[in-house]
Structure formats: C-alpha cells, structure tokens
Amino acid sequence: MIKNNQLIFENHIELSSKLAQKILLIAKKSISLKGEFTIVLTGGKSVLNLYKILVKSDSNWDKWHIYISDERCLPVDDRDRNDQIINNIWLNHSPIPKYNIHFIRAELGMVESQVDYTNTMKHVGKFDVTLLSVGEDGHTASLFPCHDYSENNNVVLEYNSPKHPKERISLSYNRLNNSKYVFKIISGSAKKEVVKMLFQHKNVPINNISGDKQVIFINKNAM
Predict the structure, then answer these.
(1) What does pTM read for this prediction?
(2) C-alpha span between 125 and 204 (Å, rounded)
(3) What is the CB neighbour count within 10 angstroms for residue 51?
(4) DSSP letter at 101?
(5) Upstream peptide bond of 165 is cis (omega within 30 degrees of 0)
(6) Which residues lie closer than 8 Å to 51 by C-beta, 6 or more apart?
(7) In b/e form, how buried is each residue of 164-188, taking b as 16+ CB within 10 angstroms?
(8) Of the candidates 33, 49, 82, 218, which lies 20 to 30 Å from 131 by C-alpha distance?
(9) Within 13 Å, how many C-alpha atoms sit on residue 126's CB side?
(10) Distance (Å, rounded) from C-alpha 27 to C-alpha 36?
(11) Edge to edge, what strands does the sheet with 127-133 contain?
C-alpha cells in the first residue's frame, strides 16, 4: 500500500525485498550516469534482512562506495559495533572492494575518529542513498531527541547516549540530509509511537532528515 511517500508492508520480508529492489535500481542508474554509487548504511535489527538479500544479489559491486551513519565507540572487533554486524552479514561475503568501504574508525577514540571521518567526508558529494533505522524514542543514527549537535560539522560526537554505550560518533543532520534519497525503515511492534511521531511531524531526529526525496518503509506490525 502506498500513501504519499509511505510504503506499508505485511511483513519484514516483503519490506526488505522491495527496499533491496529500489536500492539496486538506483545503484544501476547511478553507475550508468556517473560511474559510481554511494550509499550510507545503518545499524539496527530492522535492516538485517536487507543486508541478507543484498549479499545474494547482483550488481556492479566494484562501483559501490559504502559509508555508515554512525558507530559506537567500542574496540574494533566488538560485536556491538554497527560495522561488525554489517560485515558479518554482508560485506565480508561481498565482492565490494575493501577500499570502497569507508566506515568510522571508532577504535581511534572519539576525537580522532571524528577528525578521521571528517577527512573522509571532504571529497564526498551528495549520497545517492541514505538508509536510516529509527529507535523507539525517534532517534536515528546517533542523533538523540533534545540533544544539541553542531550544524557546522559533517561528523558529530555524542558523549551521553541514553543507550549503551554512551560514546558514539555520527554523521550530522546536514551531512545525512545531503542525500538524493533517504529511506527510513520502521519495523516492530515497539515502534508504534515512532510511526505516530512521523505522521504527526513531531520534532524528533528522524523527522529532521529527508534528503532530496524520502521514502518511509513501514512493516505493518509497527502500526
């Protein structure tokens, strides 16, 4: 079912399949037009099935450039890092060249990783696709409600996350908004209030990012 920019699915399998189709189509068009495709990945359980589909899909993978919305300030091989989950499910089994994967090196520590990823962002134009999952409080990436973040930086630091771990590194609102497509993924019965926040345009982080065009993928169990 389609309502404006909202796509509502019976289950997470249908949602993930449709999302994968859209991403692969945009990738094909982007590679044809400019020789590369840039995508920002997100952590969270809502997108795991998407990554499982992509690992079995066909594309011109050596033209993909992979970025990440945020990372937890944890050791490099910590299982709770976003990159560990994404690598284990998808990228470790993908032909995407390792030098095309541009993740946050949170193991460097907060300030050094901010500087490092800021330098990575310097030569990156508009993202083709940005994926965003959303928390029960309306947070996305590591941007939390009622927390202040610099509007001048591409990469921002969160020292007091309401969820463990407290220290996190995130792309900023401005950097995430610099995207052609923003795809928001909402799944799970615990997200019912988040869906209401979206529909009511509440001032929560997920509503502050839309890119040039946004599409909201909603599993029916979140409504």
Answers:
(1) 0.96
(2) 26
(3) 21
(4) B
(5) yes
(6) 86, 89, 90
(7) eeebbbbbbbebbbbbbbbbbbbbe
(8) 33
(9) 12
(10) 8
(11) 2-3, 6-9, 213-219, 179-186, 127-133, 37-41, 64-68
Radius of gyration of the chain from its Cα atoms, rounded to whole angstroms: 16
CB 196 within 8 A of CB 102: no
> What does the pLDDT look like over 118-143, one tens digit per residue?
999 999 999 999 999 999 999 999 99
The two structure tokens encoding residue 204: 């929560």
List CB contacts of 100: < 8 A, sequence separation 6 or more: 62, 64, 65, 66
**Structure-block tokens of residue 181:** 């497509």
Q: What is the pLDDT of residues 160-196, one digit of tens each?
A: 999 999 999 999 999 999 999 999 999 999 999 999 9
CA distance 186 to 5: 14
Longest dimension (CA), the chain: 45
Task: Report which of 218, 159, 222 is spatially closest to residue 16, judged by C-alpha positions.
Answer: 218
- Residue 11 token pair: 């289950």
DSSP annotation of 91: G
Helices (H) and strands (E) in the chain, counts: 6, 10
Under DSSP, is residue 102 helix (H, G, I), strand (E, B) or coil? coil
